[in-house]
Amino acid sequence: MGCEMPQKPIVYDAPKPQPRANDAESLKSEILEKLTYAVGKDPIVARRTDWLTATTLAVRDRIIDQWMESTRDTWRNSKKRVYYLSLEFLIGRLLRDAISNMGLMDSVCEALKSFNVDIEELIEREPDAALGNGGLGRLAACFLESMSSIKVPAYGYGIRYVHGLFRQEMSEGWQVELPEDWLAHGNPWEFERRESAYEIGFGGHVEPVEQADGTVRQVWHPSEHVLAVAFDTPIVGWRGARVNTLRLWSAQPIDPILLDRFNSGDHIGALEESAKAEAITRVLYPADDSPAGQELRLRQEFFFSSASLQDIVRRHLQQYGDLGSLPDKVAIQLNDTHPAISIAEMMRILMDVQGLEWNEAWKLTKGTFAYTNHTLLPEALETWPVALVERMLPRQMQIVYAINAMVLEEAREKGLDNGQIASISLIDEAGGRRLRMGQLAFVGAHSVNGVSALHTELMKKTVFAELHKMYPERINNKTNGVTPRRWLLQCNPGLTKLIGDRIGGGFQDDVEQLIKLDAHAEDVGFQEQFAAVKLANKEALAHVIRERLGVVVDPHAMFDVQIKRIHEYKRQLLNIMEAVAQYNLIRAHPEKSWQPRVKIFSGKAAPSYWNAKLIIKLINDVARVVNTDPAVRGLLKIVFLPNYNVSLAEKIIPAADLSEQISTAGMEASGTGNMKFALNGALTIGTLDGANVEIRERVGPDNIAIFGLTADEVNELRAQNRSPRDVIERSVTLNQVIEAIAGGVFSPDDRERYRSLMDGLYEHDWFMVARDFDAYYAAQRQVDNYWADRKVWNTKVIHNTARVAWFSSDRTIRQYAEEIWKAL
After folding, report:
1. Is 461 a catalytic residue?
2. Rounded to 5 degrees, what angle do the CA atoms 565, 566, 567 make?
3. Directed axis angle between helix 524-549 and helix 493-503, to 10°?
4. Where does the record place the region Disordered (predicted)?
């Protein structure tokens, strides 16, 4: 399990192949060659999937040229490397991204046309790698692309899940989870690195061994070993500036077929041992509501953390020969608490494998690690039963105890009382003794950052209040961002062209130049062009909706969109309840001039999250009633698009008019969907939560629809623990909505289906759905007024596109690189 020194030194001036030409003729020749000799198909019988593989391989060759040059440059110039550890990388499809970033789009299109192949057909056939649950994983993917674009040498480390996030289908309105088999036909983007394989241990015992000098060295003897094998995917930056590496780990048994056991007749045991190892990387986020599920989840986290750290230390020693320079040449960013066990594992590697003393190992560890917190939700700040960690990772738990003793002693010296010390402790003694991964990441890192200004301030006051008092310089803010390449240039080519025609193409290299659009926001001619691009995108989405759901929607109606993970704090329930209010009023007052809307939902609920799945069913039940009621006259349509993923988001976001960012204030760390929508010319309706606060500052309060309670008001109401019954009873509109849903108007087959969901609003209303309802309803009516005057609407959405360039992941990564990693 050690980090061996290399057998041969790196040769910086080794020969390299001639870079490939990028013209259409050269690409045509190479695509044909790949089809013939790599895929083994004659063009006469080749299917679209064959052309996809051949095209991917031809494009990949050109990326490899830059990939190798990027790696050589890092070695040659001893540049500091950034290692981004994340349990999720929601990378989505890579072909369009790679072709666009390499500047090959025109050449590839022309080459494929000569074979009568449409590039859009190929892109649609590429599997969507769903290696993430939502915003956390998509942020990691955006960050990797930005690191390449601004030339930060970097590796992303994660898990090569055989099955990513489940494929979502609907059965009578209920979510059904099916395996997402993205690797079924192979992955032409990846390279298996058998030489980069590491043993990962679990269980066993720790033996103290006395050394010749009288010191005692701890030796961990795991009872179980698995092998972590690396698979590398190149991540290309804009204009091919740099190509970095996404290294994903696959778990395999040490002996793949366990011949000894198999030949001795223990056939089932041998197969079970193999399956146990492979299970580690089988599924993204196994259900952890059982002891077995918890153990598998912890195995995953330690597996990829240990493999990554062994790889990092091996590479550093290979180049520099000693570990003293580790913080100067290595920056490791923990993306949330999932890789937090890395703190203890790095200490084990430095002390037990490399022979460093505690103080030196702790100095190097703290100087190397930084931690990003993504949530204030208690259930998302991971904790593990101490007994489980002691059984699975006995040496690491010893180290955790030692870290905890050191930190608590420091707290006592600083005069903290027992209550404060209990809050700081890495072990929660009140809840059945659990290891707090957030606290472990905090104390073991030199930097702890939030992901929006509001979130960072709330961190200081809530989850890390006592740690912040103890280490007041450690918490800092790095507001999230999104890559403008994927989320504007690639997903919205019509708007990209329009912007370029108006202000020039410089914004593609410097997204801050979008501010030049501000001067054209009230230009009627430009507004009409802007609206025409939006309409074309809406027509394309309307086609998707008709094709997938059989529902016809009017592209001229307002497309009101909420696409994100289904969770009670994100308040899809508030949205669908307001839709019911609209439905009631349209029928009750047909004489009024209602603005037509299409309410579009998409997102997945965790398989064990019953209320979230019930909300999906409610959305589909309401849609079934509303969409078929002739009294509505087509003024309101509701659709739920199943199997939300990156590719679907790329279709929905450019078509959105209204962006729903309505989480309970104080509960959304940042959000990135809000940034993508605004960049593509949508108006935000939302609470003062997460990055909405900063979006309002950037676009101006007149160009966003803010409503509802603030984070402080939410906390105050929760502290009072008062029933919201009086709030509900004072609101005629809300009363009617609750009565209709609870009474079974939308569930005639089971009139009690939503009774408990509605009763929860009377009992506690933890997520402030009832308390924010009237404010939300009023804000929606104001949005209707904006929509009724298209000049007003167009001015607002153009201001949004012009003013949100600051929310580029390039800006975020520059701040990380300059202020945390010291890598620029």
Report:
1. no
2. 110
3. 170
4. 1-23
Query: For residue 263, what pLDDT is reported?
Result: 62
What's the confidence (pLDDT) of residue 133? Answer: 86
Interacting residues of 603 by C-beta distance below 8 A, sequence separation 6+: 562, 563, 564, 565, 566, 572, 644
Domains, in order of start, for the chain = 78-93+128-161+177-479+814-821 (3.40.50.2000), 502-807 (3.40.50.2000)
φ, ψ of residue 656 to 5 degrees: the values are -80, 135
- The pLDDT, as a whole number, for residue 276 is 86
* Radius of gyration of the CA atoms of the chain, in A: 27
Angle between helix 755-763 and 610-627 (nearest 10): 120
Distance, CA of 194 to CA of 192 (rounded, Å): 6
Residue 660 β-bridge partners? 685
Q: How far apart are CA 55 and CA 463, in angstroms?
A: 49
280 within 8 A of 268, measured Cβ to Cβ: no
Active site residue 672: yes
Report the C-alpha gap between 79 and 82 in whole angstroms: 10
What percent helix, strand, coil does the chain show, rounded to 5?
A: 55, 15, 30
Contacts of 499 (CB under 8 A, 6+ apart): 507, 514, 517, 801
- Using CA atoms, how far apart are residues 189 and 63, in angstroms rounded to an integer? 10
Burial of 555 (0-12, 13-18, 19+ CB in 10 A): middle
Q: Are 78 and 329 in contact, with CB atoms under 8 Å apart?
A: yes
Gap between the Cα atoms of 821 and 367, Å rounded? 10
Q: Choose, from 314, 436, 564, 753, the residue flagged as catalytic.
A: 564
Q: Tell me how far apart the alpha carbons of residues 129 and 183 are, in angstroms, rounded to a whole number.
A: 8
The pair of three-digit structure tokens given for residue 142, joined into one six-digit string: 């955006």
Q: Which amino acid is at 288?
A: D
Residues sharing a CB contact under 8 Å with residue 490, sequence separation 6 or more, in sequence order = 96, 97, 100, 650
Q: Give the model's pLDDT for residue 430.
A: 85
Contact between 706 and 690 (Cβ < 8 Å): no
User: Which ranges of the chain have pLDDT less than 50?
Assistant: 1-3, 5
Half-sphere exposure of 757 (CA within 13 A, CB side): 29
The answer to whether 709 touches 772, Cβ cutoff 8 Å, is yes
Contacts of 493 (CB under 8 A, 6+ apart): none
Based on the residue annotation, tell me whether 564 is a catalytic residue of this protein: yes
Q: Which of 374, 474, 534, 599 is catalytic?
A: 374
Catalytic residue among 53, 375, 672, 684: 672
| Residue written as token pair 């993306």 | 335
Query: Catalytic annotation on 55?
Result: no
How far, in Å, CA of 506 to CA of 513, rounded?
7
DSSP codes joined into one string, 614-629:
HHHHHHHHHHHHHHT-
Q: Residue 646's closest CA among 108, 122, 126?
A: 126
What interhelical angle do 692-699 and 790-803 show, nearest 10? Answer: 110
Given the residues 93, 96, 299, 570, select the one marked as catalytic: 570
C-beta atoms surrounding 104 within 10 Å: 21
One DSSP character per residue, 134-174 reads SHHHHHHHHHHHHHHHTT--EEEEEE--SB-SPEEEEETTE
337 catalytic? Reply is no
796 is catalytic: no
Q: Looking up tokens 């450690």, which residue turns up?
A: 474
The per-residue pLDDT for 795 is: 98
